[in-house]
Amino acid sequence: AGVTGPVLLLIIPLEFLSSIIVRPVTLCLRLFANMFAGHLLLMLFAFGAQYLIFEATSAINVTAGIFAVLMFFMISILELLVMFLQAYVFTLLSSMYIAEAVAESH
To answer: CA 92 → CA 61, 88, 89, 98, distances in Å?
Structure first.
């Protein structure tokens, strides 16, 4: 509010890029990166456990495979916590961005 002249020509495109393009993209990238990293960890421990338990020839490898199964379940619980946290953050940031977009000063 209160901006006039040539500065307004700079602020309008920057505000459009920031509000309409950059914020939703960063929210989506954040959500995708968290989901992708969690799924990679789950796949790593699941396939590692499967290989160590069923393809191993020594007792140490089978023990490591059982440990990998336990880690798989612990990471699954951690993923559940991260999902709820990400849903909360996504909802909170989305509501803040929408509130800023419809504010009287805009």
So the answer is: 45, 6, 5, 10
